[in-house]
Amino acid sequence: MSNTGNLRRTERAPLAAAFTRDGVATALAALLFTLLLVSFRPFQPSGAEGSADGGDIVNQLGFSALGAASLFALTTLADPKVVRSLLSPSWLLTLGFFLLSVAMAVDPSSAMRTAFFTLIAMTAVATILALPRDAEAFSGVLIFTIVVVMGLSYVGLVVFPNEALHTTASQEPEHAGLWRGVFAHKNIAGPVMACFSFAGLYLFRRGRRIWGALIFIAAMNFMLHTGSKTTAGLVPFSILIVMVPGLVGMRLGTPVLFMLAIVATALGTLGIVFVEPMKALAAHYFPNLTYTGRTTLWEFAGEMLAKRPWTGYGYESFWGTPLLLNQDQPFDRAWDIRSIVHGHNGYLDTAVLMGIPALCVVAYTFLVAPLRDYMRIPLLKENIYLGDFFMMVVLFAALNAFLESFFFRRADPVWLFFLFGLFGLRQVSLRPLATIRPN
Description:
Layout: H1 14-18, H2 21-38, H3 57-76, H4 80-84, H5 89-103, H6 108-130, H7 135-159, H8 161-164, H9 186-205, H10 209-225, H11 229-247, H12 253-268, H13 271-274, H14 276-285, H15 294-305, H16 322-325, H17 346-354, H18 356-375, H19 381-400, H20 413-430
Helix pairs in contact: 2-6, 2-7, 3-6, 5-18, 6-20, 7-9, 7-10, 9-10, 9-11, 9-19, 11-12, 11-19, 15-17, 17-18, 18-19, 18-20, 19-20
């Protein structure tokens, strides 16, 4: 979204306009976004995760091509001012800690291969935001991507039911019948559909009412069929926190409510494990509150973090490694930590892998910086609408990260959408968006 000011719609025929520089940039952004979400292994339990093990040639070639296309587009099609503003000092420091954790990994070469795909995905997300010339072009990117991803997911329910739904033959038979579409798991499909619903609301607000309404309804329906109660609760919560203050003339109340929600959620999740007053309170009033056994994981991760608080264990060097595979498993532990792929809390996992100092930087970059960006968004209609959309995505993902772990997780679609919101807020806060009335 690189242009500013009020632009007049051209008289070119739609087909001719598609082959202009701006048209190619918009089409490339839509293609990149679609491929990132669908991945090169749709309808597969491993999904894009296969890109991390170095053994899947399809993912290797596919994501390498995405990286090359992204770099080419950033250098030839994007506004250089936009490209230069993509990385803030806090992001540079965050990436510094990330690369340091890669260097400290048990197997640095393997961790570097995984980190390479993570960096490719991050570059692609930044490219998607830098290419559209204005809000109307960005709307086109959203519509194309959502229609393709959601269309494939719905079609998959009929054509590939064993892949698009969880079944009794899967590793988690208790999820049988729940929808996951093109994604690897319902816990990915649910949050992605939640973000699609935010996009539908954005499109509706800026005049694309039919597309916006259809996308919102279809996304909400799919999300409800994933069976994720947390996601279903967070969607209206995120919409209300972002929308209500603006409707009553107190737009800056959104950052305050954002921080209150983050603090309350942190105390209600990690707090009942690590903060003694909260732990005692939960034991008295909610003795069975374990978040489906997650508190057991958090307690164990906290004990291990205490042994290496400054540096952590290194990227990809904790969950699923020999360090845990050789651990004894008490009979009364709710989950077997030896078979867990992550700690189901993004913030705690960041500390375990990268250290507490890195967590502090990440918390600023992921939670404080977006609030600063939101508060300095120009008070123009297009900027406000788009800023609200990005803020809904960031708030939803930030709260969801207290129960799931997706930070720096390769091409995980939830991580990609979180980046989408973070980078998007920064972009929409720096310059007025071009305004073109939608058809």
